[in-house]
Amino acid sequence: MWKKKQQAEMDRVVQGVGIQYTSDYVNNLAQKHFEKQQEVEKKWENELKDLQETQKGEFRGWVINVHEDINKQTNGISNAFMKQPERHVSTDATSDSIAEHFPEQRLEESFTIHLGAQMKSMHNLRILCADVLDLCKHKPSKIGGLPALQPQRLQTAMSLFSNNLCGVVMLVDNRLNYYTGLKRDFFQVCQQSTDFHFPDLEAQFARIEKDVLKATELRLQQKADDAMSCDQEAGSDRASMKSGSSGNSTESDKSSTKLQTGDFYITRHSNLAEVHTVFHLVSDENIRTGDISSRHPIILGLRNVLKVCFKHDITTLTVPLLLTHEMTEEMTIPWCIKRAELVFKCMKGFMIEMATWGGKESTTLQFLVPKTISDDMFLTLRNMLPQIFRLNNPLVIKS
Question: How many C-beta atoms lie closer than 10 Å to residue 248's C-beta?
């Protein structure tokens, strides 16, 4: 409401510039509106944090009471279990405008494949057309006038402490924040409900920032060691090498303090719809337009993500097939086919490599394509998948 009020006031003042108001007055009014907006957002942010802490305390107390009652009783249902704490979801997600509806249909198709020559391992593949945040958002509806969540929330919660975790790869820039673009939208999704098991996104980012500083120090130390070994091998060329690289050393060190393309950091969640773990993979603008090879840092980053999944029981992983979350004009049909073929083949090779480590016998890999892709392009990509991977075809015996 106050935003509309500010907008109406600003429109009225802008129309009167040079007649009734000056440019300085407009600038002062804009600054006043900005300060008011910051004040209101800060107020609601603090209230939201207080509410989340209260809910976490209630949930912890409920779990302790249930545990104590179970230890006391051998039969029957715990009284504390019957008095479950009230769960809250953002009012935006359960407003009166939400009607009773069926889940939104999306394009997807599943396959079962075998990888390996002698020691075969079975995997499930799925190609689906959706927005990456659709895997994170809860889509509540109303049943009998009361808000109701989809079954995915219960299924995700039940597998939270199991050996069948779900992860998704989200492409981000090299800045460790949640202020712009997809990162801001993801932060808002995380704020729609309380996470009872893990720290909030802000606290996780603070811990990740410390880890990034440590990783940067190790990276700089490794570069220094490599340079020293090169200098020792060069012998007499040592002085010339130093003089030639001295101008770029400061800039190189500065760039090393940032996340680089192919790096990723992990956040954990118990309040998202279909995922427990989010791999924030650092990408750049060139990935959308330029041609890349199998040795590109972002491809190697996918290999490292898959390696973490095999080591830590993340059996379902969603990967952006085109290495982008939205379609642009330069993404032509030949570009999409070439990019999809590269990702398919690289992921197949990585899965065969990981299977030799004795990983899970059955894993699920989902290839995500942007929601705005055409049906014909989706069908083309779908037909590529069985040509690259070996499918399990039934054996038909004729009598």
Answer: 10
* Three-point CA angle 343, 110, 105, nearest 5°: 105
Tens digit of pLDDT for each residue in 305-350?
Answer: 999 998 888 999 999 999 999 988 888 999 999 999 999 999 999 9
Q: Which amino acid would we find at residue 377?
A: M
Who's near 216: CB < 8 A, 6+ residues apart? 256, 257
When pLDDT is averaged across residues 278-293 and rounded to a whole number, the result is 88
The half-sphere exposure of 160 on its side-chain side, counting CA atoms within 13 A, is 16
Alpha carbons 390 and 115: distance in angstroms, whole number: 7
